[in-house]
Amino acid sequence: MYPTSPLRPALRFICMAISIACLAGLSIAQDTGNxxxxxxxxxxxxxxxxxxxxxxxxxxxxxxxxxxASMVSYPVNTTQNGKRIQIRTRQQxxxxxxxxxxxxxxxxxxxxxxxxxxxxxxxxxxxxxxxWWDAIIPSSEKNPQPDxxxxxxxxxxxxxxxxxxxxxxxx
Length: 171
Prior knowledge:
By secondary structure, the chain is of the alpha+beta class.
């Protein structure tokens, strides 16, 4: 065990402040999306990511919980009561659906357009990171190829607390 330094809380605060500033900048940059407004970070699989998002949007509009459950890569990361947790199974997803897809998350998905999809090496998102998805490479794949369309897209994170998308409240 390492001794605790009196500077440790200050360093944590500084790291947290930098993270928040980066996320705020990312949220501002995300307004246009980089899948249609190309930039160096734009990925080749943007067209598939946009198609996946539009399918997700249809499922959200229809409140098709089973369809959405099939669009998730388990375990999926989320936040509940300020703590990061993992939803490990389809049954757990269906049981916690109303907490995962809060009114603010639903609003963020419904109000987004395909042109709002933004992607980088971590995956794709809309709404400043409200929901993230990516192509999922099966663990059995020995030599994955960066081939757009070869691997299915799945939801990998639902950031359902503190949603700050214009026109969508956190309630």
